[in-house]
Amino acid sequence: MNRMALSLSLAAKLRWWEFALWACLLCLPFLLPSHALLISEITVIALFAMSLDLILGYSGIVSLGHAAFFGMGAYSAALFAKHINPDPLLGLAIATAVTALLGAFCSLGILRGSDLTMLMVTLGVALILQELANKLDFITGGADGLQGVVMGPVLGYFEFDLVGQTAAWYTLGITLGVFVLLRQVVVSPFGFSLQAIRDNALRAQAIGIPVHARLISVYTLAAALAGMAGGLQAQTTGFASLDVFGFDRSADVLLMLVIGGTGWLWGGIVGAVVFKSLHSVISAWTPQYWTFWLGLFLVLLMLVGRERLIRPWTWGRRA
C-alpha cells in the first residue's frame, strides 16, 4: 500500500517541463501585451475543454451540450456582479456552485440509457437554457445580451484594464489552480475508477466500484468547472449573450479535444491553443473560408496521426 501511495503521489506531481511551460504561459501577458485579450480567451476555453475531457476522456460520458454549464456559469457570474457584488472571486465561486447544482441534477438523466440518450439529454438541456435566457429578457437581456457588467478589482487591488493584462493573469492563475487540482483527481483511486468505468462499466460494477455515484460525482465536477470557465468569460468581457449556450460552442470544444487528445489534461490546453490560433490566423487571412482550412487541418491530423504532430513527448505517459 505504501508503494502504491508513493507511486500515486509521484504521478500527481508536475514534471519539470510542466513547470517550465506554465512559467512561460504566465509570462505571456507581459511578453505579448498586445495579445493579452486573446491569451485570456484561449485560457478560458482551455479550462472549458479540460472540464469536458474529464467526463469524455476519463469517464466515457459523451456530451453535445456541455455549453449548458458554460452558459449558466456566464450568466450567473454576470448577474451576480451586476446586481449583488462585483467581486470577481466571489462571483466566480457563485457561478461554480450554481453550475455544480445544475450538473448534479442533470447527471440523473445521463445515467439512464445509451450514449445516444446522453447526447440527446445534454443537447436538450443546452437548448432549453438558451430558450429560457431568450424569453426571460427582463433578467438576462434576451437577444441583446446582459450588458453593463462592471467587475471590481481582483483581490481588491488589480483593476481590469482595457488591454486585458489583468484578465489574462486572472484566467491563467485560475486555470493553473484547476489543472493542479485535476492532476490530483485523475491519478487518485477515484480517477482510476473512472477509467475502469469508461473501459467497462459492467466489470467495474462487478468488482465493487459504485458506478452511478462515481458518474454523478464526476459529472457534477465537470459541470462546475465548465461553469467556472463561463464565469471567467463573462467577468473578463463584461458581457453575457445567448451564444454562450450555442451548439457551436459545444462543437468547438469537442474539436479542441480531437486536436489535443482525450484522456490527458494537456489535451484540452493544446487543443484550445491550436484551435484558437488557427482561427485567429486563418480568419485574418481568409475570413470567408477559414472553416475550409480548419477542416483540412483536421483531416490531415487524423490521417497523419495526432501523436506524431502534437505530443510525441507524451508517449507512454498519461495524466
Structural overview:
This protein has helices at residues 2-12, 16-31, 36-56, 67-83, 88-110, 115-135, 137-140, 165-186, 189-199, 201-206, 211-237, 247-260, 265-285, 290-304, 306-309. The chain has 319 residues and is mainly α. It has a domain at 34-247. The protein is globular, with a radius of gyration of 19 Å.
Q: What percent of the residues sit in helical stretches (DSSP H or I)?
A: over 70%
Mean pLDDT: 83
Number of strands: 0
Low-confidence stretches: 311-318
Keywords:
single chain, 319 residues, mainly alpha, 15 helices, 73% helix, globular, disordered C terminus
Structure, briefly:
This protein has a domain at 34-247.
What's the layout of helices and strands?
Layout: H1 2-12, H2 16-31, H3 36-56, H4 67-83, H5 88-110, H6 115-135, H7 137-140, H8 165-186, H9 189-199, H10 201-206, H11 211-237, H12 247-260, H13 265-285, H14 290-304, H15 306-309
Helix pairs in contact: 2-8, 3-8, 3-11, 3-12, 3-13, 4-5, 4-6, 4-11, 5-11, 8-11, 9-11, 12-13, 13-14
